[in-house]
Amino acid sequence: MHAWSKTVAREVAPFGVTANVIVPGRVSTARTEALDRARAEREGLTVARVEADARSAIPVGRYGDPQEYGAVAAFLASERAAYVTGSTVRVDGGQIPTV
């Protein structure tokens, strides 16, 4: 996705179009809750334990809020971000350890 977005960004930039990648971390959604429940059942743990384990791997110590993810998407789609293209933005609370 990253290489593809760079290619697309170069191709569409002359037309005023931007192309960026937003990489989510653990965002609190119905899907995340379902995955946590499934893991708890599979491993014989409580959902609270699964969530606590997941939060402990996130430097900010919590799941993201969907509105936080949406705010980044809205910014990248706005006129204020017209010069941001071919970029990757992580919305992960610092979870992804690589550059």
Give the key terms.
single chain; mainly alpha; 8% strand; 99 residues; two-stranded parallel sheet; Rossmann fold
Structure overview:
The protein has helices at residues 2-12, 30-43, 47-56, 66-76, and strands at 21-24, 88-91. The protein contains 4 helices and 2 strands. The mean pLDDT is 96. α2 (30-43) packs across α3 (47-56). The protein has one domain: Rossmann fold (3-Layer(aba) Sandwich), CATH 3.40.50.720. It is mostly helical and 99 residues long.
- Our measurement of the CA-to-CA distance between the termini, rounded to an integer number of angstroms, reads 15 Å
Residues in helices, as a percent range: 40-55%
Total number of domains: 1
> Could you give the order of the helices and strands?
HEHHHE
**Number of H- or I-type helical stretches:** 4
The level 1 CATH classification is: Alpha Beta
Give the spatial strand order of the biggest sheet: 1-2
Supply the CATH superfamily name: NAD(P)-binding Rossmann-like Domain
Brief description of this entry?
The protein is mainly α and 99 residues long. The protein is built from four helices and two strands; from the N terminus they run αβαααβ.
